Amino acid sequence: MKLVNVVLVALLVSGVAHAQKKSGLLSQVSGQGYGSAGCGFGSIVMGSDGNQVLAATTNGTSGSQTFGISTGTLNCQQDGIFKSGREVPAFIEVNKLALANDAARGQGETLAGLANLMGCNSSAFAPVMKKNYNKIFVETNMQPAAIEANINAVVAQNNVCGA
Amino acid sequence: MLLSLLPLLFVHSWSASPIPDSSLAAKVLQISQAKKLSEDRQWKKLLHFERDTFFVTESQIDSPNFFLSANGKKDPHAELEATIQAFFQEPSADVNEHAQCKFPARYQWLKDHLKNESIAWKDLKCDRYLSFAKGMQGESVSLVFSSYYLNNPSSAFGHTFLRVNKAAGQDGQRHELLDYGLNYAAEADTNNAFLYGFKGLFGLFPGQFRAIPYYYKVREYNNAESRDLWEYELDIKPRAVSMLVAHVWELGPAQIDYWYLTENCSYHMLSILEAADPKVDILAHLDHYVIPADTIRVLWTKTSLIKSYKYRPSIRQVYFERGKILNKEEQQEFAELVHQIRTQDEIIYGKSFQDRTPESQAKILDAFIDFIDFQYSKEVQEAGREAQLKMRVLGKRSEISVEPQIIRIDPAPEERPHLAHPSGRWGVGYLHDTADKDLALLTHRFALHDRLDPAWGYPTYSQITFFDLGFSYGSSYNNPDEKRFELENFAAFELVSASPWSSLIPDHSWRFKLGIERTRNENFLPTHEGVMKLGGGWTFDYGTFDITAQVQGEVHYGPSLADNNFWVGAGPLWEVHYKVNAWWLWQGGLYYRRDSAWNKQDYFRSQIETQYSFTKSFGVRASYRNERFLEETSLQLFNYY
């Protein structure tokens, strides 16, 4: 009987421990409870039939709400791979903060990734982003589409992305 | 009723087996039977046939749509037959629903095994699968381990997922952020902590495979949770990579029951690798329990699969590094900026800042930017006050045409997870106490690490104990002629997070324990008590040693110790931890406690312990403890496995 008790306590504790991990950051960052399916990345990637779908999940840490992904921007095919031409807004959405940091510093992995995605020459792209930082990131709560539009305008003006 | 169904059945079977291909199917079936293909190891791996705890071999996939034969979960022969039949059926209106399109890895496997036979394969053009495979486009595979966050030891088991590595971009560079990750996780449907633990441990959550952009995982772990990522590039050839992608596609709609301790993320990362590449053989070498951190160690020590590894530091580490390279004056400027963001609505750069060289200004601002991201991640995410200030700081930074310093962090060898000591531990030992008792000790810990274990692979400042059981054997206190086997200590869960306080990262340290302890009263009558302890305070790091000062509170529940079964106590605690090297560690502590159940005497405990480890598998630990009613000395031999 003692053993049964011991096992029960262990179960309870492991549950608590794991659930702490589940809720910690998500509620902290997004202010929402865990498991609020229906918003964010997962639901957008998830096809209507839930078939062969590849959505975002983690080992129970935070959900996509952490990154504030809004509906409509992550235009994936129903199979989890981005529709051609839709990678750029999704990339900007998730990487918004790191991208702003890189742009201000004029260097970084996130900036290089975006340049590649947009088919731009990274070494020409980076200094232009830095120089025009204030024209691109004009507000704190910008929608990714607005950031993308500003980047496109700057890039076109400076002619750094080929066509 | 039956009669009315007959025509339907007839129509169905007639349309499903068109004449032109039945001969082809029959031929393939015949050859594969002659070759005994259904006994091929990779075929069984593609179907996820494994032997379970009860020595039953069947598929671990729990959803019927993964099988084409009604008996497929139990019978790989029947499943192969049904699969071959399905491959040569006429496609319906939606070609994507055809078996070739739903099971591209099985199809590829079959073609590979029959490539010397003259078979006129009729490959279908599966547009959904093809666009998926094109999007993944991998050349190699990395196993990514997301490790612990110092102040969140419950993340200590870690998480593993695979990354499919794309070829270099147009600029000739690899862009890891643009790769895709393959993840397996439980689809949890509850908030309730108890339910979560229960369902997780007993396989009551469905587990699912997902493909996720790698940048998403990087932002999640590195930035949002401040967890380091370790990326292990595996020796998997491009052909096997496409097989892996095809197999994950097959698993997309499948469901597998998620078992937190056995069939978990790490287990299935290896199971899909084994299915994709016959040369991978590791599941059979793992223990019954699969802890992500152990998986990395086993891969590193027991296989030659890991080609190279790379460390991707968390935002916390990067910030800490940027802080460290500031000189004294720059640190003052930095502190001034930190003060401003806490107290005012505008960042004003004073004259002393403006007078600095651009290089120095850039250094300070770069550290400050990372500080804001680390310290105010929530506010920045939510575009709050700090986000607005940060945007202006970035504006200022963009005006300084100095490149940021590249931060390279190379963790010390003992911090690398693949070099970790094994996480399970058992011990035998001897204990002598005041009542002149000599007891034999027997202990077993399921996982993971305490601060005297060999300092390899786990965070230096943390203890994470999961299911630690200690028993003693010797003559009973009540009746010296009687020998008894007794539970001495049980820690279901014990955490010590001694994150050092620093001006750059002013962390608190804390501890928690939930378990059962055997305590002695003034008459040496031991009794078992359920205990919960919680402590908080600070740790100060002085290089080889650190000092912790905390206040700890305890709740006890025990049947016969005091008048009241339930009592509480609280008091200060000091601890010194001294690291001679990774193999030899010391720890000493003083603890005072005032108890609600002990009005005669306050509780005072002093303790010193040391462990010397000969290898990562063996160590001896000596301990001396002096507390109310009791003084004891013990010596234990530990084996890590």
TrEMBL record, chain B:
Residues annotated as domain DUF7840: 415-632
Record InterPro entries: DUF7840, DUF7843, Lnb_N
Pfam family, one: DUF7843
Domain named DUF7843: residues: 35-112
Domain (Lnb N-terminal periplasmic): residue spans on this chain: 134-299
Membrane-spanning residues: none
Name of the protein: Uncharacterized protein
Lineage: Bacteria, Pseudomonadati, Bdellovibrionota, Bdellovibrionia, Bdellovibrionales
